[in-house]
Amino acid sequence: MENLSAGPLEDLLAMHGPAIIDRVEAEAARDPTFAKLLGGVWQNRMTDEVWARVQAARDRRGWDGNPD
After folding, report:
1. Among 14, 37, 52, 54, which is least packed by CB within 10 angstroms?
2. What pTM did the predictor assign?
3. Roughly how many angstroms between the first and final C-alpha of the chain, as a whole number?
4. How many helices (H) and strands (E) does the chain have?
5. Inter-axis angle of helices 10-30 and 48-57, to 10 degrees?
6. What is the pLDDT of residues 2-51, one digit of tens each?
7. Contact (CB, 8 A) for 39 and 58
């Protein structure tokens, strides 16, 4: 999961975030596993607007050693 989050997903959001963020939010709302995958993404080269939307859609539980 870490390799997908900090690799291809993060790069996709950095390069195409404004074009895909609506779909990313919808998928995170529909699929808890995808929301957890977003939890491992860092801002990288995302715009502040896209990054804020990713942060709102993601699930960070477990990524920082916290179960909540």
Report:
1. 52
2. 0.90
3. 18
4. 4, 0
5. 40
6. 899 999 999 999 999 999 999 999 999 999 999 999 999 999 999 999 99
7. yes
What are the φ and ψ backbone dihedral angles of 31, each rounded to 5 degrees?
A: -125, 105
Q: How large is the C-alpha radius of gyration of the chain?
A: 11
Give the tokens for residue 66. 């916290």
Identify the residue whose tokens are 């960070």.
60
Single out the residue of 39, 45, 46 nearest to residue 62, CA to CA.
39
Rounded Cα–Cα distance for residues 46 and 55 (Å): 12
